[in-house]
């Protein structure tokens, strides 16, 4: 799946808003606001459950990495996430 298609599919899931559990949150991290070199995906299967997190790191911007973006789409589909959210921008590390 190309990166633009993956990004559109993720954005579509985010636009659906909050629809309960399972909830998946995407947060990008980087040394500056122009390049995200890490992404963390947190999954909460039910209310009160400890979130499970998975982190991906890349030398390039992870938002433009086809493999990472496609993997995020597959995770959303595999867990059947009802709610997908994304932290705005890049969190500085």
Write up this protein:
- The protein is an alpha+beta fold.
- It has one domain: 2-Layer Sandwich (Signal recognition particle alu RNA binding heterodimer, srp9/1), CATH 3.30.720.
- It has two helices and four strands.
- The longest helix has 14 residues.
Write the layout of secondary structure elements.
Layout lengths: L2 H13 L7 E8 L7 E7 L7 E6 L8 H14 L3 E10 L1
Parallel strand pairs: 1-4
Antiparallel strand pairs: 1-2, 2-3
Helix pairs in contact: 1-2
In short:
With 93 residues, the chain is of the alpha+beta class. It is built from two helices and four strands.
CATH topology: Signal recognition particle alu RNA binding heterodimer, srp9/1
Give the beta-strand count: 4
- Compute the number of structural domains: 1
Give helix and strand order, one letter per element, not per position.
HEEEHE
CATH class: Alpha Beta
What share of the residues does DSSP label as strand, in percent? 25-35%
Q: List the uncertain runs.
A: none
């Amino acid at each position: 799946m190309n990166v633009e298609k993956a990004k559109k599919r993720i954005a579509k899931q985010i636009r659906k808003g909050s629809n309960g559990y399972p909830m998946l949150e995407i947060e990008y991290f980087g040394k500056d606001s122009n390049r995200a070199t890490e992404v963390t995906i947190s999954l909460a299967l039910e209310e009160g459950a400890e979130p499970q997190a998975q982190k991906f790191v890349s030398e390039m911007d992870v938002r433009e990495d086809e493999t990472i973006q496609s993997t995020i789409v597959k995770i959303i589909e595999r867990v059947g996430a009802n709610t997908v959210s994304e932290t705005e921008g890049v969190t500085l590390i």
